[in-house]
């Protein structure tokens, strides 16, 4: 069975992230237009907060899986990704 470059992450997780992000962008556009009622705006805001949390969790999980292969002494070693430089 051929290995996928996204083998450790289920396809649905990427799809869920992409669809959540797209929905969040649409909500932001609607809120920025300012043509909704207060109730509609609050509902969109609440949904946006939930979507943002979902996206943040997915990104955090992805960051934890990011690994860099470094060739050392002819062998490949796995070095965990660090966001600090």
Notable traits:
85 residues, Helix Hairpins, two-stranded antiparallel sheet, 60% helix, elongated, disordered N terminus
Shape: elongated
CATH topology term: Helix Hairpins
In the predicted model, the low-confidence regions spanning at least 5 consecutive residues are 1-7, 67-71
Estimated helix fraction: 55-70%
Topology overview:
Elements: H1 11-33, H2 38-65, E1 67-72, E2 75-80
Antiparallel strand pairs: 1-2
Helix pairs in contact: 1-2
Structure description:
The chain has 85 residues and is an alpha+beta fold. The chain has one domain (11-80): Helix Hairpins, CATH 1.10.287. Helices cover 60% and strands 14% of the residues. It contains two helices and two strands; from the N terminus they run ααββ. It has helices spanning 11-33, 38-65, and strands at 67-72, 75-80. A two-stranded antiparallel ribbon has the order 1-2. A hairpin with a 2-residue loop joins strand 1 and strand 2. Helix 1 (11-33) packs antiparallel against helix 2. The longest helix has 28 residues, at 38-65. It is elongated and about 60 Å long. The two termini are 37 Å apart. 1% of the residues are buried. Mean pLDDT is 78; it is low at 1-7 and 67-71.
